[in-house]
Amino acid sequence: MVFSSLLFIFVFLPTVIILYYAAPRTIRNLLLFLCSLLFYAWGEPVYVLLMLFSTVIDYFHGLLIHHYLHNKRIAKWFVISSLTINLLILGFFKYANFLVQSANEILGTAWAIHELPLPIGISFYTFQTMSYAIDVYRGDAPVQRNIIAFGTYIALFPQLIAGPIVRYHVIADQLNHRRESIPQFANGIKLFIIGLAKKLLLANNIGMLWDEVRHMPAGELPLLTAWLGIAAFAMQIYYDFSGYSDMAIGLGRMFGFEFPRNFHYPYISQSISEFWRRWHMTLGAWFREYLYIPLGGNRVATWKVYRNLFVVWLATGLWHGASWNFALWGLYFGLIIVLEKYVILRLLTRSSRWISHAYTWILLLVSWVLFAFDELDLGFAYLAAMFGIVSDGLMNDQFIYLLYTNILLLLILILCATPIVENMVCSWKSRYAKLSEIVLQPVYLLLVVLSVAYLVDASYNPFLYFRF
């Protein structure tokens, strides 16, 4: 089950809200935990057992870590045990076949590959469970003695499938002491509607343009068509993922939780480093907190800083998927960020912001090609078309048709990828508070009507981060 479905919007969510607010406060975590398990089981019933196993294992590891905090050596071994179990589970389901297939190709062996479906959202909730053991060990968060509250943290359906990745110390106090409010609930509904519209009305529609371009043979792609196609993918993945994150944060607010922001207008960035401070912010924060800094961060010798950055970015790439294109995608960003850190940023500060934007966008569009194509040969062929190596001229009639039929949508996408609209709305609200609320209500209603109308007739409704 996904948020952008009629079943979720009109059956599951209203039912859970009614049950939640009708229930005594003492059992609300239990209700959310059970409903979250049902939500997860709707897509993959058998993997609920895997989630329950992870919940129980990490719950007792947390108790043992806390119990032995007076002896850091013993407590550290329980942290290592927890991390090892979680990484083994993640590695088995997500990376085992990739490793076997790679070994077969390199060594010429014929080891069997067993196609197991990837548990939905395993990359997200595994990182959350690992943050719990580390936070308790560091003393950044109290141990959770209530297994139902802990299970709610792991399985909470608003952020279960695609984040944001909520580190335990961020939400620890909210698990037991949150206080819901009508303004918070109303704000959650608005944010959910905005996220739903971003996903259905923007991401899905521009995604159809990318879907058409990507299936054209690279050798027959005019240069401008190739750039238009990957720009469409860049917009699709942004509105798809940020829309889902907005829905998740909005749902959290409906139940009294405050999740961290996951996107902050990344496409206005003037460097790749800035882009990654604005894109998938909770993933970046997780790697910085639990991998980069423990490795020494930038407080070590220069060559070790290089090493730390490349380790983090290789891990970031492989987190997204068990495929060589994701590994290359991560190392690509690692190389750029190293170069920016020591050379490029100094040059960009002396140039105009338009040059900085162009530099960032060109590198980002190249990166999205690596991300979009699981098969490296197809990705390299597409890059060759983008840079005129194998392209079929500069443009053709089909390019003009694709641009003409999507120009309005592209302009809307570009505008909404900047803070211009948000700033205008905030400014208007500050001047005309009551009037703005009256005017905005029909806008939210219109977005709901258009989104539902799209779902009723939807034949194209992918979710790009569903596989992660």
TrEMBL record:
One of its GO terms (cellular component) is plasma membrane. The keyword rRNA-binding does not apply. It comes from the Bacteria. It is a multi-pass membrane protein. Keywords: Acyltransferase, Cell membrane, Membrane, Transferase, Transmembrane, Transmembrane helix. GO terms for biological process: alginic acid biosynthetic process. Belongs to the membrane-bound acyltransferase family. This is MBOAT family protein. It comes from Paenibacillus albiflavus.
